[in-house]
Amino acid sequence: xxxxxxxxxxxxxxxxxxxxxxxxxxxxxxxxxxxxxxxxxxxxxxxxxxxxxxxxxxxxxxxxxxxxxxxxxxxxxxxxxxxxxxxxxxxxxxxxxxxxxxxxxxxxxxxxxxxxxxxxxxxxxxxxxxxxxxxxxxxxxxxxxxxxxxxxxxxxxxxxxxxxxxxxxxxxxxxxxxxxxxxxxxxxxxxxxxxxxxxxxxxxxxxxxxxxxxxxxxxxxxxxxxxxxxxxxxxxxxxxxxxxxxxxxxxxxxxxxxxxxxxxxxxxxxxxxxxxxxxxxxxxxxxxxxxxxxxxxxxxxxxxxxxxxxxxxxxxxxxxxxxxxxxxxxxxxxxxxxxxxxxxxxxxxxxxxxxxxxxxxxxxxxxxxxxxxxxxxxxxxxxxxxxxxxxxxxxxxxxxxxxxxxxxxxxxxxxxxxxxxxxxxxxxxxxxxxxxxxxxxxxxxxxxxxxxxxxxxxxxxxxxxxxxxxxxxxxxxxxxxxxxxxxxxxxxxxxxxxxxxxxxxxxxxxxxxxxxxxxxxxxxxxxxxxxxxxxxxxxxxxxxxxx
Length: 547
Fold this sequence. Notes:
- With 547 residues, this protein is an alpha/beta fold.
- The protein folds into 3 domains: 2-117, Alpha-Beta Plaits, CATH 3.30.70; 142-443, Rossmann fold (3-Layer(aba) Sandwich); 461-545, Macroglobulin (MG2) domain (Immunoglobulin-like, Sandwich), CATH 2.60.40.1930.
- It is 24% helix and 26% strand.
- It has 13 helices and 25 strands.
- It has a 7-stranded parallel β-sheet, sandwiched between helices.
- The N and C termini lie far apart (54 Å).
């Protein structure tokens, strides 16, 4: 019997070793530990601006994502001597650094549902170009004029919209704010998720040697910089939350948990927009680009469901054998941004679509080749840089300007306006997406439908999950009316917010069960939305047609 027990333990230990090998670090193994349930008595403290944003999206009560992880679970992990790196209430999980013996014990806990490795890979060097620039131009925008005028953002500036009243979360490598272009930056809060402190600039000699804060510093300037005659970003009057999430030391890919933690932090502090020039690829296959697999992709969709507009660079893989986008740009709700040249032609390095499930990517484009920005770790020097890292902040800045002009709009309304007014909106493809954005036209866009990405269901109506999902060709949805309501409307929309079919529109009474079936014969593969609304509430479900 002892021999059997020993062999069983050895087999289990060996299996753990095999499963977790991708997460091996010098200090141990870095893994996600997922739990079975959450603490229904404790919820996250939300900034009043976060609550206001949620209410605009009909989210008046706490969602499942607001409940905290059970203290008892955290304590049980800590008692093993395990280092907890980040806690994610959205995923109901913690990222930890532990040895194999500790992980073997963790996997035996009855409240642990799974343990998965957090990968590490070498990061490709970003595509960047350098050139000396003339700082003596008389135009207010200086050498940033083209990138602003290309997205038609100078007109909203003339009209007085500069991103004011909008709070933006920026995720990157770090930020040095001593440059003149940041003299008027409205900084609300910052946090370093690498070193667990509130300093997002370089903190030690190694970070200085590695240029840790360079990328974030220059990317932020494209969106938020203000130095008339040199550089003006689209949203220089927005409020900013700065998150340091990406490690550049030894070109090691920063694990996704910092990205998730930063999104949760920013959402709770009232971010309207989240912008990241980051992405993850090496441990994923093309099959994983389905909008439902990558950790950061899941987090982006959760943030979007809470009313945050998420913007992410598409990636710089266009010249590689792998030319597809990177995660989390495969998310359904994200605005994935490709890069074009100054003349509007696509940059060769800009990543292409489609996603594995056939959705068009990127969503839109902006100038990402020879984009004008500041030179990091200087007080008044400038440069150009190339990559989708620099087109993403232009689009995020434009989104902030749109929200300034239309503060009542939801995140999905801003997204719809940007896509449907872009240069290629009539014939979107997997190179340009819907094309180069047009900020002024987006501001004046007339919505066909007010899509609200909303998962908090008021008690007048209960909308059950559509089934089956994915489907072909039939999908059904059951709706229960709990109290009297004047009218109920259930309709199908495509990814562009275009009405496909009205399933139901009629007056209803209390305690009525309505069973609806959509026959999708004759419709194309892809993502659709089943949108149900009634006085005082709505429900939006994403479904996938696979033929």
